Amino acid sequence: MDLAAAARVLDSGFNRMVYTSHFLNLLKPMALAKIAAHDLAIDARAIRASLTFRQFDDLFTAPLHGFTSADDYWRRVERAVADERSILLAAESDGAVLGTVQVDVDTPPNQPHRASVCKLLVHSDARRRGLGEALMVAAEEAAAAAGRWLLVLDTATPAAERLYRRLGWTVAGVVPDYAMNPDCSLTQTVFYWKALAGRAPAASPRSAPRR
């Protein structure tokens, strides 16, 4: 799958006229606030002038997270999949990608039984159709097929937490101020784990404190 090409679809045709324009108007003020608050070496004038997601991501999102460009991120994902360090799953309808999730199996030598589930994303127009649950089930099946029976993930999204709990995931703990929101405020992150196919950890973890 050419992930970079898929990303460029968002900046073309009807998507660019409606979807891209709307979300850039939301993203730009948050990016400019973060640049000002943290004195980042990012060109604020270029951010204001950006017209596409690609331009915005190349100027702001990519360098903020250690990538040289948006294409650099997608190429790294492609390489990870090609090298079998990551499993990429997608939900499609009539050729359109509606959701995606990744299973990271690039673990240290002493953790060959573990994998991390990450980047669960469902298009806003396709939510409340069970796609998130379907992708999570597919991720668990893919992990099991790869010989990984202990899964972990983290989230800062309450709606995602409800899904994970419903699917049998267990809270491992909460880290306050773990991640930064687009408006520069800090947010807690909740870590979850799940043992597949009836497997259980050799030692039961201590109960996580209730939030």
Task: List key phrases describing it.
211 residues, Aminopeptidase, six-stranded mixed β-sheet, 6 strands
Please specify the SSE layout and strand pairing.
Elements: H1 3-9, H2 13-38, H3 44-49, H4 53-64, H5 70-82, E1 86-93, E2 96-104, E3 114-122, H6 131-145, E4 150-155, H7 158-166, E5 170-180, E6 186-195
Parallel strand pairs: 3-4
Antiparallel strand pairs: 1-2, 2-3, 4-6, 5-6
Briefly summarize what is shown.
The protein has 211 residues and is α+β, with helices and mostly antiparallel strands.
Folded structure, characterized:
This protein has 211 residues and is α+β, with helices and mostly antiparallel strands. The protein has two domains: 3-71, no CATH class; 85-195, Aminopeptidase (3-Layer(aba) Sandwich), CATH 3.40.630. Helix content is 42%, strand content 25%. The protein has seven helices and six strands; from the N terminus they run αααααβββαβαββ. It has helices at residues 3-9, 13-38, 44-49, 53-64, 70-82, 131-145, 158-166; strands at residues 86-93, 96-104, 114-122, 150-155, 170-180, 186-195. Strand 3, helix 6 (131-145) and strand 4 form a beta-alpha-beta unit. Helix 4 crosses helix 5 (70-82). The model has no long low-confidence stretch (mean pLDDT 83).
